[in-house]
Amino acid sequence: MSKSLLLVSRHAPCSGSTPRELLDIALAGGAFDLPISLLFLDDGVFQLFTPNFAALEQKNLSANLQALPMFGVEQLYVAERCLRDRGLDSTKAQPAVQCLDDAAISALYASHDLVITL
Amino acid sequence: MQFAIAVFSAPEQASNRRALRFAEAVLAEGHAISRLFFYQAGVHSASSQQVTAQDELDLPRAWHEFVTQHQLDAVVCIAAALRRGQLNQAEAERYNRDGYSVQTPWELSGLGQLHDAAQSADRLICFGGP
C-alpha cells in the first residue's frame, strides 16, 4: 500500500515560485495515484483567495489549484487560526477547503506517513 | 535503514550544509541513502560553475565528492533546474544555451523520482529554509 503524504504550503502566492513548486509535487504525486493531502498554513492561506496575478506579473496559480481534484488530490485543508489571524473568511476560499482547528491539524500530521513542507 | 533525503535550499543556506552533514552521518552509522533529491534552490548544489571564496566551505564541490565517493543516486529536479539555469549538456543543446553546469554524477529527472524515493525508503528527511 502506498504511503500517505501530507504537503504543507506555507507561503503567500506573491512570494515567488514556492507555492507553485509545492503544487507541482502534489500534481506529480496525484498522477501516480498516491494518497496526498494538502494543508494551507500561515501565509499559504492567501493562495485560496485568488489574488490579482496579472498585477504580480505571475502565472495564475488558481488553474493549478483547480486542477488538483482532476489529479486525485481531493483532501484540501486550511488552518482556521491562520485564516482568523488574517481576517479571511473560509467560505470564500477557492477551491473549497476543510477548515481545521489546532487539534485537528495535529491529528492530520499524525495520520500521514510522510510530510513535506514548503 | 534506507533514507531518502530531499534538499530544498541553496548551498549558501545553512540547511544545505546540514543536509550534507546529515547524509554523511547516515552512511557513517551504517545506514543507506536510496536517493538524494534536489528541488527548488537546492538544484544549485549540483552546479559545477559556482565559485566559492577560498576560505569558505564549497558545498557544490563537497556534494559532488560525497555523491561520487559513495556512488549515490543523486537526482536534480529538471523543471526546477531549468528555471534556475542549471542545465546539463543535453538540456543546453535542447534549449540552445551556450554552456552547461550539471554533469555526472548528477541526473536531471522529474518529480516522480521524489515520490518514488519517498515511497520506497524507510524515512524521507527534508532540508529547507534558512
TrEMBL record, chain A:
It comes from the Bacteria. InterPro entries: DsrEFH-like, Sulphur_relay_DsrE/F-like, Sulphur_relay_TusC/DsrF. It holds the Pfam family DsrE. Belongs to the DsrF/TusC family. This is tRNA 2-thiouridine synthesizing protein C. It comes from Atopomonas hussainii. The lineage of its organism: Bacteria, Pseudomonadati, Pseudomonadota, Gammaproteobacteria, Pseudomonadales.
Automatic annotation (TrEMBL), chain B:
GO terms for molecular function: sulfur carrier activity; sulfurtransferase activity. GO terms for biological process: tRNA wobble position uridine thiolation. InterPro entries: DsrEFH-like, Sulphur_relay_DsrE/F-like, Sulphur_relay_TusD/DsrE. The keyword Cytoplasm applies. It is found in: Cytoplasm. It comes from the Bacteria. Signal peptide: none annotated. Keywords: Cytoplasm, Transferase. The keyword Secreted does not apply. Its main location: cytoplasm. GO terms for cellular component: sulfurtransferase complex. Belongs to the DsrE/TusD family. This is tRNA 2-thiouridine synthesizing protein D.
